[in-house]
Amino acid sequence: MDLLHWCEDIESLEVLTLWPLSKQNLARSREELSQLLGVIVKTVAKISRTQHWRIHYMGDLECLPSDVTDLLLSHSGATSHLGKPVLNLAIAYSGRDEITRAVQRLLARRRAQGATTELASRISAAGISRYLDTAGQPDPDLVIRTSGERRLSDFMPWQTAHSELYFTSAYWPDFSREDLCTALRSFENRERRYGR
């Protein structure tokens, strides 16, 4: 909640994405997963009550217990009338899984439109982008990775192709407003080259 309050002061911020639960985390013990999901649902409820962020989910919510999915969807529904900023919450998320689901949706759409031949030649990067969990949103400008890790860990591999990466040794629970400001200053001092 602190991070969201800090981000409210950033006028140019249109989309913020947080990744509270990977799809791989679903393999944790039933007790641990239940506790994690409880924290996530309570936090999403708090965010929804602020009526500041339009909540959008990334990930495969179908993998979650139906009561959890229902609660999460009710909280996002309560913010659907809001414009920007958008808060993407990656829950039961895997980047590879997202791309797989996007291609499956694209192929299903093409089949429904009657495409039967040369289907593979009709698939494009722009077409896949329209079926990602972030369809219609800009790609991230900045990705902040906490805990000293120097990898993206299957986080938005499609969308982060040209994102600037910032790594900090601060662990997520200890990530402070100063850490955020340091990351933003670093970003502001970079020359964006978009792969050129």
From TrEMBL:
<protein>
    <submittedName>
        <fullName>Isoprenyl transferase</fullName>
    </submittedName>
</protein>
<dbReference type="GO" id="GO:0016740">
    <property type="term" value="F:transferase activity"/>
</dbReference>
<keyword id="KW-0479">Metal-binding</keyword>
<keyword id="KW-0808">Transferase</keyword>
<keyword id="KW-0460">Magnesium</keyword>
<comment type="similarity">
    <text>Belongs to the UPP synthase family. Z-FPP synthase subfamily.</text>
</comment>
<dbReference type="InterPro" id="IPR018520">
    <property type="entry name" value="UPP_synth-like_CS"/>
</dbReference>
<dbReference type="InterPro" id="IPR001441">
    <property type="entry name" value="UPP_synth-like"/>
</dbReference>
<dbReference type="InterPro" id="IPR036424">
    <property type="entry name" value="UPP_synth-like_sf"/>
</dbReference>
<dbReference type="Pfam" id="PF01255">
    <property type="entry name" value="Prenyltransf"/>
</dbReference>
